[in-house]
């Protein structure tokens, strides 16, 4: 995957701000779960490392994009970074990790069950994995960068087949966030009305990625022009963790070994 697609929301692009803040808040909500040895598979550009790494005794961050990993190393001298394609997790021992943080990753993994089995393998008994992923019931279109998306029950059932305990929560937004979400929904509908043959659900992912990125960037820029104040003013504190709900924007799964 290219480093700078619309799939990786940037903290430097104004039109990405609502999504960046939503993803950032998940890391703050994860703070109470952080302890001991922490593993983050799929750290991306390190959005949450400054938030969580000070709370860990050891922080190991993995990402498949070597350029991203190399750029992060000078910024966080106390964090161990590895370029890695997973699953499996190579060179990570069984029962060696206290907490796994993996945000917006599982939807990209072809073998999602093996991914969760590997997380279970490396966790110590009683260790926890915190997993976030988009709630398919709130998705506005098919995302060709994703292998699949989940409902609350689907992710709970999958994790429950591997872990001894699974608790489902979610990242939700206040009225300001939901106003942006509805503007986004209307804007996406204006674009997809031309897809009279429903090609977004019929074509292979590889064929959709370039048009998806172009249209997604156009859509975010249009939303910024439409309501600059709303796009720029949304802050991470406009998002919050709540109990399982079909209208949560992201699923927040706590799986205990």
Explain this structure to me?
The structure is a single chain. The protein is built from eight helices and eight strands. It is α/β, with parallel strands linked by helices. The protein has one domain (14-256): Vaccinia Virus protein VP39 (Rossmann fold, 3-Layer(aba) Sandwich), CATH 3.40.50.150. It has an eight-stranded mixed beta sheet with strand order 3-2-1-4-5-8-6-7. The chain starts with 16 loop residues before the first helix and ends with a strand. Residues 1-6 have low confidence and may be disordered.
Sum up the structure in keywords.
257 residues; alpha/beta; Rossmann fold; eight-stranded mixed sheet; 8 helices; 8 strands; 35% helix; 21% strand; disordered N terminus
Furnish the topology, listing elements before pairings.
Blueprint lengths: L16 H14 L6 E5 L7 H4 L5 E6 L2 H7 L7 E4 L13 E7 L8 H11 E12 L17 H9 L4 E9 L1 H18 L12 H22 L1 H6 L5 E5 L6 E7 L1
């Amino acid at each position: 995957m290219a480093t700078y697609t619309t799939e990786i929301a940037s903290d430097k692009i104004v039109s990405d701000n609502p999504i960046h803040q939503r993803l950032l808040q998940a890391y703050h909500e994860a703070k109470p779960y952080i302890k001991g040895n922490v593993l983050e598979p799929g750290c991306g550009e390190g959005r949450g490392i400054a938030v969580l790494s000070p709370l860990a005794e050891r922080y190991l961050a993995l990402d498949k994009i070597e350029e991203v990993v190399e750029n992060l190393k000078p910024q966080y001298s106390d964090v161990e970074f590895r370029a890695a394609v997973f699953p499996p997790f190579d060179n990570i021992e069984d029962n060696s990790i206290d907490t796994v943080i993996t945000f917006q990753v599982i939807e990209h993994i072809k073998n999602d069950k093996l991914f969760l089995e590997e997380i279970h393998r490396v966790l110590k008994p009683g260790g926890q994995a915190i997993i976030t992923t988009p709630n398919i019931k709130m998705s506005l279109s098919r995302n060709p960068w994703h292998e699949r998306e989940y409902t609350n029950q689907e992710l709970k059932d999958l994790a429950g087949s591997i872990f001894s305990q699974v608790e489902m929560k979610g990242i939700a937004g206040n009225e300001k966030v939901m106003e942006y979400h509805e503007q986004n929904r209307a804007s996406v509908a204006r674009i997809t009305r031309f897809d009279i043959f429903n090609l977004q659900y019929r074509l292979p992912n590889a064929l959709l990625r370039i048009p998806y990125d172009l249209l997604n960037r156009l859509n975010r820029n249009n939303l910024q022009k439409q309501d600059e104040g709303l796009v720029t003013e949304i802050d991470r504190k406009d998002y919050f963790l709540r109990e399982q709900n079909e209208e949560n924007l992201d699923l927040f799964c706590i799986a205990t070994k």
